[in-house]
Design brief:
By secondary structure, this protein is of the alpha/beta class. The chain folds into two domains: 3-307 and 374-498, Amidase signature (AS) enzymes (Alpha-Beta Complex); 308-373, no CATH class. The protein has 15 helices and eleven strands. It has helices at 8-16, 22-40, 48-63, 106-113, 156-163, 180-186, 220-230, 273-288, 304-319, 337-348, 351-364, 370-393, 416-420, 427-432, 461-474, and strands at 43-46, 75-79, 117-122, 169-173, 189-192, 213-217, 260-264, 292-296, 396-400, 436-443, 449-455. The protein has an eleven-stranded mixed sheet, with helices on both faces. The longest helix is centred in the C-terminal third of the chain and has 24 residues, at 370-393. The N and C termini lie far apart (46 Å).
């Protein structure tokens, strides 16, 4: 048993006290990746030399009596849409297949300042557009629980890397569930913070009003500690909140006694029986822990998916216009600029990215802007106001995370609408800019993990994570990664009727 399996908090404490060397932890991490990633394809780039150099610096600091930081020696994986100076950043796209940024994303700098060690860049759906990591130009990532199934997306590589025990902490981005959905399908914790709490500087944009960077870990405490390290104001991001990083870990163990929890009614009919049952079982667990749990109707959330799939492609159409064969990445030579631009984008972008660019361009075009994009923004406002009303009566909301357990490769690729429905429970929080977290809570069909989602109002991360900690305490160990030695027997789930109306 390696200290890697003990998680972020234990690793950082051991390194800071000199009990374990960061160099040994990095060696163990790289050995695990080398031994196991050929089957899973979590990583696009492994930064072995960088990681060993960084570990040596941390070990030297400890020997000199200097505290390396709250994440001392913790190996971290980064989704490959986060810029890393001097290291490939591809967005899993051919159009950026050879691009090396000249700067680090702010979150990368903050990880380094906290003592963390970046060990590699993880696979994703191209430009973060997808829910299965099947859209990567460099091949799919496989789910560590069952390699015939997807890990979710778009941050599938980061979720799978944590689930497989390669790293204890990873970063992803969440535009419409891209952290929480793969976290649920891989049996790990995934946190999407409030929009503006974490700097987006250096995150390659998909939909700028929706994108947010968050954490994956095996436990709520580890995910919270990682979020503390990367959060806080950044003058390089104009949408960043002008406030210091919040304190999250110290309040995790305060419990939920007296807390008001609302279970959203509308999602139950949108998900499989096992996912619905997991949510009701989670509600029962919170009630048993002292929370006041009631059902709440928020009908506007069911309009979120349609609004999202207008707004996000529209913003993608604008953001991806910069990839023109002149300034970034791939260039296909042609007799004139217009032909060069068309050939470059046709060769560089995959099918899903091209589909969303066309949808977004149409939604923004003359004569259709107000009918589509304008209307979607009005629906977005309705969703946000509906959440505001719900939070007058409840501290947090509880909902299913995904419509089903992880599905088989190819199951949803023939009909894009089937894939888009995977985001139905996730996108409302992105539209509102609110935080949400997926917590492993049960096993569903084929003994695959099922996550439950806790939602909170803007800047409500502390109460949200306290609730998530209570759920983690009540959840069976067999529903959580790491998967080595797990008990594959499914946990009996409560039925819907067990919750008071």
């Amino acid at each position: 048993m390696s200290i890697l399996d003990d998680g972020v908090v234990a690793i950082a404490e051991a390194v800071r006290t000199g009990t374990v060397r960061a160099s040994d932890i990095v060696d163990d991490t790289l050995e695990r990746i080398d031994a196991g990633d050929a089957d899973l394809h979590c990583f696009l780039t492994v930064m072995a030399d960088h990681a060993r150099e960084r570990a040596a610096e941390i070990d030297a600091a400890v020997q000199a009596g200097v505290d390396p930081g709250p994440l001392a020696g913790v190996p971290v994986a980064l989704k490959d849409n986060l810029c890393t100076k001097g290291t490939l950043t591809t967005c899993s796209s051919k159009i950026l297949g050879n691009w090396v940024p000249p700067y680090d994303a702010t979150v990368v700098e903050r990880l380094r300042a906290a003592g963390a060690i970046v060990v590699g860049k993880t696979n994703l759906d191209e430009f973060a557009m997808g829910s299965s990591t099947e859209n990567s130009a460099f091949g799919p990532t496989r789910n560590p629980w069952d390699t015939s199934r997807v890990p979710g997306g778009s941050s599938g590589g980061s979720a799978a890397a944590v689930a497989a025990g390669f790293v204890p902490l990873a970063l992803g981005s969440d535009t419409g569930g891209s952290i929480r959905q793969p976290a649920s399908l891989c049996g790990v914790v995934g946190v999407k913070p409030t929009y503006g709490l974490v700097s987006r500087y250096g995150l390659i944009a998909f939909a700028s009003s929706l994108d947010q960077i968050g954490t994956f870990a095996s436990t709520v405490e580890d995910a919270a500690l990682g979020l503390e390290a990367i959060a806080g104001h950044d003058p390089l991001d104009s949408t960043s909140f002008d406030r210091a990083a919040p304190s999250l870990v110290e309040s995790l163990f305060e419990g939920v006694a007296g807390m008001r929890v609302g279970v959203i009614d509308e999602f139950a009919a949108e998900v499989s029986p096992s996912c619905a049952a997991a949510t009701f079982a989670a509600a029962e667990a919170l009630s048993a822990a002292g929370a006041k749990v009631e059902r709440v109707s928020v009908p506007e959330v069911l309009h979120g998916l349609a609004a999202y799939y207008v707004i996000a492609p529209a913003e993608a159409s604008s953001n991806l216009a910069r990839y023109d064969g002149v300034r970034y990445g791939l260039r296909v030579d042609a007799p004139d600029v217009a032909t060069m631009n068309a050939l470059t984008r046709g060769a560089g972008f995959g099918l899903e990215v091209r589909r969303r660019i066309m949808i977004g361009t149409y939604a923004l075009s003359a004569g259709y802007y107000d009918e589509y994009y304008g209307q979607a923004q009005r629906v977005r406002t309705l969703v946000a106001r509906a959440f505001e009303r719900a939070y007058r009566d409840f501290d947090v909301l509880l909902a299913p995370m995904t419509p089903s357990v992880a599905f088989a490769f190819g199951e949803k690729t023939k009909n894009p609408l089937d894939m888009y429905v995977s985001d139905v429970c996730a996108v409302p929080s992105n539209l509102a800019g609110h935080p949400a977290v997926s917590v492993p809570f049960a096993l569903g069909e084929a003994d695959m993990p099922v996550g439950v989602q806790v939602l909170a109002p803007a800047l409500g991360e502390a109460v949200m994570l306290r609730t998530a900690m209570a759920l983690e305490t009540a959840a069976p160990r067999n529903a959580r990664a790491p998967i080595v030695g797990r008990d594959p027997r499914p946990r009996p789930l409560a039925t819907e009727g067990a919750i008071d109306a």
